[in-house]
Specification:
Elements: E1 35-43, E2 48-57, E3 70-77, E4 83-85, E5 95-104, E6 114-121, E7 129-137, E8 152-155, E9 168-176, E10 181-190, E11 202-211, E12 214-220, E13 231-239, E14 248-257, E15 263-271, H1 280-289, E16 296-301
Antiparallel strand pairs: 1-2, 1-8, 2-5, 3-4, 3-6, 6-7, 9-10, 9-16, 10-13, 11-12, 11-14, 14-15
């Protein structure tokens, strides 16, 4: 079987992106964040770009015993809403993915696009932690001349993650001091950032009561259909004495529930006194306390 082989000349690349061994599996990583490899196939006839995520290596461990469970997010910029994630590989610093993702790109736009890769450490209990990222400008590959690349290795960098909104959630709080009941009603969310390859997932919400920095009570709502603007209409009640309100906070979180049983945090919002939160979360809590027995509703950005 014949195959086009494409090599990127070093003078075509930004300095510092690749090591001398960029076209082969590295024996050592020049980046403390690690490395990742990928390849590209462009089809101008069908306006399709295939991004093949091959592997990551030399990933950092978080602490002495915390070996990462990596997965990779892939997207194009600018102005491309498609984004994908690989499957998670459990407890390894070097992972083979061999997953391919398809983007809609026309020949007139391909040279203006960049492929963004971000490697995350997955956690079953918390939001994934970003381990590193890299960006590849498609213009450097010359896909209009040679539509297929060989495996390309890039160093992962520790740049600050771009600010990408996770959406917003609409929450109503009320407190009845005579009964000592705190009510948290999650009505709906909007503009959720959904992965393109997570169509088998449903959504659910959690309301957590935080006391002295630790979750002391958690309540979970029913699952709803996965969409960018879901309606929840879930109300949770917590028995809380008035004397404890200055030491408590509420966290509302939205989760994806996958068929394989793994739940992934999409974003969360906190409401409470100034020892826990500032901005909208503090304002909402203060408005609730100043209006006993009344429901006070407010939008909160998810982080």
């Amino acid at each position: 079987m014949s195959m086009d082989v494409f090599y990127i000349e070093k003078d075509q690349l930004n300095a510092g992106i690749y090591t001398d061994d960029e076209l082969g599996r590295p024996q050592n990583s020049s980046s403390p964040m690690g490395k990742m490899s990928f390849s590209l196939i462009f089809s101008p006839q069908s306006d399709e770009l295939l991004v093949n995520v091959h592997s990551v290596s030399h990933l950092q461990s978080r602490g002495i015993t915390c070996t990462p469970s990596p997965f990779v997010k892939v997207r194009l910029s600018p102005e491309n809403q498609q984004k994908f994630s690989t499957k998670t590989k459990r407890h390894t610093n070097q992972a083979e993915f061999e997953e391919t993702f398809k983007f809609n790109v026309s020949p007139t736009d391909v040279d203006s696009k960049e492929v963004h890769f971000a490697v995350y450490d997955s956690s079953r209990l918390a939001k994934p932690v970003r381990l590193g990222s890299c960006v590849f400008p498609l213009k450097q590959a010359g896909l209009l001349r040679r539509p297929t690349t060989t495996e390309i290795w890039m160093d992962l960098c520790a740049e600050k993650e771009e600010s990408v909104r996770s959406g917003d959630v609409f929450v109503a709080l009320s407190y009845n001091p005579s009964k000592g009941i705190l009510s948290v009603k999650v009505l709906r969310a909007k503009s959720l950032s959904l992965e393109a390859n997570g169509k088998d997932a449903d959504l659910f919400i959690k309301a957590s009561l935080i006391h002295k920095g630790k979750a002391c009570k958690n309540k979970r709502g029913k699952t709803v259909r996965r969409e960018t603007d879901p309606v929840f209409e879930e109300e949770f009640y917590f028995q809380v004495s008035q004397s404890l309100l200055d030491d408590l906070a509420v966290v509302v979180s939205i989760w994806e529930k996958h068929l394989l049983g793994m739940n992934q945090l999409m974003g969360k919002a906190m409401m409470g006194p100034d020892k826990y939160v500032t901005g909208p979360g503090l304002n909402h809590w203060s408005d609730m306390l100043s209006s006993p027995k009344s429901a006070v509703a407010q939008w909160h950005p998810l982080t």
